[in-house]
Amino acid sequence: xxxxxxxLIKQLxxxxxxxxxxxxxxxxxxxxxxLRIRRKNDDYIFTYKSAGLMSxxxxxxxxNKEAYEHLIPKCDGNLISKTRYRIPEEQGYTIxxxxxxxxxxGLWLAEVEFPTEEEAFAFxxxxxxxxxxxxxxxxxxSQMISADPQALLAIAKxxxxxxxxxx
Length: 167
Known about the structure:
Layout: E1 2-9, E2 21-31, E3 34-40, E4 43-49, E5 55-56, E6 58-63, H1 65-71, E7 76-88, E8 94-100, E9 108-113, H2 117-122, E10 129-132, H3 141-144, H4 149-166
Antiparallel strand pairs: 1-5, 1-9, 1-10, 2-3, 2-7, 3-4, 4-6, 7-8, 8-9
């Protein structure tokens, strides 16, 4: 079971280059249920995710490069390209900060995984987070594949600015 919350980011943390990072490219073969293929550096993965926004089943199976290259042209919509930074957080969690490239250049999202829903709801965000978008399917990668990138970036900017003004 995967339990995670997703946040828009208003500013990047200091010394970002000091954290481990990986380059990710992913595409979606289906969105209900989610069937995703991903290249993470030199690893290739097929993922199934059940329905849900914060809590859902997730199964990953390794792929080889040839299978990935065979499947990538079959993916629907926008390909997702991003650099993911793994940032330790003071409450003991790991923040996965995604800096998007390509058609979603300028979008910054963070995900934090939790062992229980209670811990997820109790999580206190660091000051560089803008707002929680966990329940907004618009910001889930599986929905971004069919989004108009400029419209999605405008929504993200508006939400981040609104949150900044209320902070």
